[in-house]
Amino acid sequence: MIKINLENTFEAIYVSPNFDQYIFESQLKNNTLIQLKVKFTNIADSLLPNVYNLAFGPFDDTGKINDSINLKHKDSNKVFSTIILFSIIFLKDNPHAAIGIDGSDDLRANLYHRMFRYNYKDLQDFIVIIGVDWYVRLLRNGSIELDDDGSAFFKPKPEPFDFHRKSHDLYRYYMFNLNQ
Amino acid sequence: MKDSIQNKINRIQEIALASSTKKSIVDGNIIESNSDNNLSKSIRNTKEAELFFSELKSAIDLAKKNLTKNALE
After folding, report:
1. Domain for residue A3, yes or no?
2. Residues 26-55 of B with CB under 8 A from A
3. Is residue A5 part of a domain?
4. Contacts of B12 in chain A (CB under 8 A)
5. Which end of chain B is more exposed for a tag (fewer CB within 10 A), N or C?
6. Domain containing A129: what range?
7. CB proximity B22 to A under 8 Å
């Protein structure tokens, strides 16, 4: 279980002027030191306005973030605490923004779900955690609302993170805002 | 907020400010998708975005109430 402690974080070795990119170093279990990048990107989805997707991971060969690699950190708690601290700093600089996390697979989504559930009491002074499900509207004629390309028109529906939801009932997307 | 956490935040902000001129990247307005080249889709999505904002605000308010309620219990 990930335990967030904002007093125990790695030092940033790079911070962008807009507070949307950070680099820090973490030691892996095999004692390798690896640079990790944290980046907040406006997902430019008009259905999720002002939501910035959180991506983190090591650099790949092209210099982009490899967020699908599975790393064994010596101190995962410190890694995630650092990422949450950077997220809070980004939100302090952009108080109208929300940060979104989309687990790239069920394993990661499960990790984020349990991390928020386990740490919400410690995080509540800083952030408000929101869970997002996607719904499609049922029309009166019995069909469902369709997008322009004929596929179901799903819309995001945010709600306060339900801490009673179990791991088999994950949200599709996780968001958090600054608690201000 | 604990002083130690605030000190960490201050230190990171100093690193960023040393980089170059700072510019806020969010202005608080609804950001339109560049891919919205269809007017009706754009109007519809703007409406949905406003609805999302409203629901998000309600969700945040409710979450804050729940936090206060849990703290009192």
Report:
1. no
2. 26-28, 30-34, 36, 38, 41-42, 45-46, 48-49, 51-53, 55
3. no
4. 12, 15, 19, 22, 85-86, 89
5. C
6. 12-178
7. yes
